[in-house]
Design brief:
Layout (H helix, E strand, L loop, with lengths): L10 E4 L13 E5 L3 E5 L8 E6 L3 E8 L2 E5 L7 E3 L3 E3 L4 E4 L4 E4 L8 E5 L4 E8 L2 E4 L6 E5 L3 E5 L1 E2 L1 H5 L15 E9 L7 E7 L4 E5 L11 E9 L10 E9 L2
Parallel strand pairs: 1-21, 19-21
Antiparallel strand pairs: 1-16, 2-5, 2-15, 3-4, 5-6, 6-14, 7-13, 8-9, 9-12, 10-11, 12-13, 17-18, 17-20, 18-19, 20-21
Length: 251
């Protein structure tokens, strides 16, 4: 399968020194190592089969539970939302009018949840099945594959492939100096601004990280951040604001 192609200035590159390293640090890019592999709605063969991948197909691994990997669903996977939660718009798009609605593995409320979507989010509808719509799996939708059916292919993952968001570059970047800062990435509790993370550098200097893509899977890790110091004319932040253009996990 082909991964979603989304252009962005922000990339996350996770370094792997061995295949075992990926077991503890997510996300990473994997490929199917068997002839035919099922994606299931949960970490057990009793869960519904929602897609089937051929040998060599690529998937993004998000997490692990025992002998199973949690993966971002490919666009070919089956996913459903109740019709009364969607407002159909143009070009096969629909807007969610319910709040925190489950994406289901089949067209019934008893099937397993593949994730949740929030009010106002847009999805692509494929076909109506009774009182349900089959939708193109959004980035929040995830399934499960047996660990021994996948092998590590790459440590490079486009942040927007995970979040479907773009981080706008600050204006007049040509006049700004690109810097690199190494330190520990931490989430800022309760932040409702674009600066949702802070970087505690090796010299104890603190930076706020301005970036739309969700970096939660890298919080608590030591990273290298390349970016631009952006202006804060009103001095509303206690620390310098670093607009992240590139984030790499350090071993």
């Amino acid at each position: 399968m082909k991964l979603r192609q989304i252009c962005s200035s922000v990339f996350l590159i996770v370094g792997l020194c061995a295949s075992g390293y990926a077991d503890e640090h997510f996300p990473f890019l994997a490929q199917v190592s068997k002839k035919s592999v099922n994606i299931r709605a949960g970490a057990n063969t009793n869960f519904e089969k929602i897609d089937q991948l051929s040998e060599g197909a690529e998937v993004i691994v998000l997490a692990k539970s025992f002998d199973w990997y949690k993966v971002q669903l490919p666009l070919t996977a089956k996913a459903y939302v109740r019709a009364d939660y969607l407002k159909i718009k143009q070009n096969s798009m629909a807007e969610l009018i319910g709040d925190k609605v489950n994406i289901r593995a089949a067209a019934n409320s008893e099937s397993a949840s593949l994730g949740m979507i929030k009010k106002g989010e847009a999805v692509k509808v494929i076909a109506q099945v009774n009182d349900w719509w089959q939708i193109e799996p959004p980035v929040q939708a995830a399934g499960w594959i047996r660990q021994d059916f996948l092998s590590v292919k790459s440590a490079t993952v486009d942040a927007t492939t995970l979040t479907n968001a773009k981080a706008p570059m600050p204006a007049n970047t040509t006049a700004l100096k690109l810097i690199e800062v190494k330190g520990m990435l931490k989430a800022i509790a309760g932040s409702d601004s674009q600066a949702r993370y802070q970087l505690v550098a090796d010299d104890q200097m603190v930076y706020y990280i301005q970036s739309i893509p969700d970096l939660d899977c890298f919080k608590g890790a030591k990273v290298s951040v390349k970016g631009f110091i952006v202006a804060d004319p009103d001095h509303t932040h206690a620390h310098p604001i670093l607009h992240a253009a590139h984030v790499s996990l350090l071993l």
